[in-house]
TrEMBL record:
Organism: Aliikangiella marina
Name of the molecule in the record: Histidine--tRNA ligase
One GO process term, biological-process aspect: histidyl-tRNA aminoacylation
Annotated GO MF terms: ATP binding; histidine-tRNA ligase activity
NCBIfam families given in the database record: hisS
Domain Aminoacyl-transfer RNA synthetases class-II family profile: 21-357
Signal peptide range: none
Length: 426
């Protein structure tokens, strides 16, 4: 026997039994962003490596350890996108969407990071994200948070997530704060792990982002950025807090929240849950006012977030009634017994699809007796089976069997079922 293959570690198949929950979530996401007037952008999965190094930052987990990078036939260094913001900014600059304009955009798709696979952490995972450009004030920050809060409400787990916010201030204030941090950590050098010692000089903010449990206390006691915040950023932050209060959105200020990517300034936020163990962040984002200029465009403000869809699905699947939210893949199952009925039913199925395009019609294929066909009908999840035998065809009628209700079978004319399928399905 020849060797069988397995998917690459940390990269998952989405099987037919998994796809209904993905489709449900994707539908909810599309509905929510449409309600805020956002437009979709789709960018390639592969970009020039330098795009990610220059935006995410050389001294970050993603760029140092997690990127899938390859040399394309001895020429360019390319990378499978680890996140969506850099690509969106690149496309925005390249196609003139950002200069002197405002944009509210969204995207959805697979991202790639070479991490240690575990529950809620994969090597191919999926993000939904929004990015806005050309909005300086905290009104847009608040809108992004309101949009995500609306999604949790729609998905039914708004009571399981908490919003944490912080401000990273201006570039200047951050540089000054970095010096303060370096001094603090230098006096506690022996408590820093290897990564953090290496990053101390180049990127001390990353140390605050460490997930090493042995450094929790050290990080908690570190000097807080709020004491070094510049005036304008402080006003921006107060403005955001006021708007969240207007909207009735509860939040916690987390002074050690810095995010794992270098491009953020001012507002950063995360939605976290205690229901998923260590992988508790389901959505994260903030402001990146310097990124467009940093990637060669005319300076303009940016603000966005990304959410991890696998983690959201884990939360959805914890709900006892989540299956009832998913739509069945088949509504009507059509059986044909014998040659004459088979010929009739294949045409009838097409007629039904013409009449009722939103109804999901599955035609029995492969012959077989009544019992076998009904078994398939039941397994399909359909509500109703339409059964044709030779007698029915001769009489232009059909037997209607209700598969999920305790109702007697009915004999109706084939034509009337075409007209009233919606009512039959309830
Ligand atoms: P984490 O702290 O969990 O590593 P992160 O800060 O690296 O997350 P971001 O780059 O901000 O994550 O990405 C936004 C969201 O994407 C995360 O909050 C999470 O929900 C999801 N995410 C990130 N990495 C993964 C992964 N490897 N597998 C599944 N989801 C992920
Ligand atoms: Mg990470």
């Amino acid at each position: 026997m020849s060797k069988t293959f397995q998917a690459v570690k940390g990269m998952n198949d989405c099987l037919p039994t998994d796809s209904p929950v993905w489709q449900y979530l994707e539908g909810c996401l599309r509905e929510v962003v449409a309600g805020y007037g956002y437009q979709e952008i789709r960018t390639p999965i592969v970009e020039n490596t330098q795009l990610f190094c220059r935006s995410i930052g050389e001294v970050t987990d993603i760029v140092e350890k997690e990127m899938y990078t390859f040399v394309d036939k001895g020429e360019d260094s390319l990378t499978m996108r680890p996140e969506g913001t850099a690509s969106t900014v690149r496309a925005g600059i390249e196609h003139g969407l950002l200069y002197n304009q405002q944009q509210r955009l969204w995207y959805m798709g697979p991202m790639f990071r070479r991490e240690k696979p575990q529950k809620g952490r994969y090597r191919q995972f999926h993000q939904f994200g929004v990015e806005t450009f050309g909005y300086p004030g905290p009104d847009i920050d608040a809108e992004l948070i309101a949009l995500s809060a609306r999604l949790w409400q729609k998905l039914g787990f708004d009571d399981k997530v908490e919003l944490q916010i912080n401000s990273l201030g201006s570039n200047q204030a951050r540089e000054a704060y970095k010096q303060v941090l370096i001094e603090y950590f230098q006096t506690n050098l022996s408590q820093l792990d290897e990564d953090s010692q290496r990053r101390l000089k180049s990127n001390p903010l990353r140390i605050l982002d460490s997930k090493n449990p042995e450094m929790v206390e050290l990080i908690d006691n570190a000097p807080k950025f709020s004491e070094h915040l510049d005036q304008e950023s402080a006003a921006h932050f107060t403005g955001l807090c006021e708007k969240l209060e207007l909207l009735g959105i509860r939040y916690t200020v987390n002074p050690t929240l810095v995010r794992g990517l270098d491009y953020y300034n001012r507002t950063v936020f995360e939605w976290v849950t205690t229901e998923l163990g260590a992988q508790g962040t389901i959505c994260a984002g903030g402001r990146y006012d310097g990124l467009v200029a940093q990637l060669g465009g005319q300076a303009t403000q940016g603000c966005g977030f990304a959410m991890g869809l696998e983690r959201i699905i884990l939360l959805l699947e914890q709900q006892s009634d989540f299956k009832s939210k998913l739509s069945a893949s088949v509504d009507v199952y059509i059986c044909g017994l014998g040659e004459k009925a088979e010929a009739f039913s294949i045409q009838y199925a097409e007629k039904l699809r013409n009449k009722a395009p939103s109804v999901k019609v599955q035609l029995h294929c492969g012959g077989g007796n009544f019992k076998k066909q009904l078994k398939k009908a039941d397994r399909s999840g359909a509500k109703v089976a339409l059964i044709f035998g030779e007698d029915e065809v001769n009489a232009q009628s059909v037997a209607v069997k209700f598969l999920r209700e305790n109702k007697p079978q009915e004999m109706l004319t084939a034509q009337s079922v075409l007209e009233s399928i919606g009512e039959l399905l309830g």
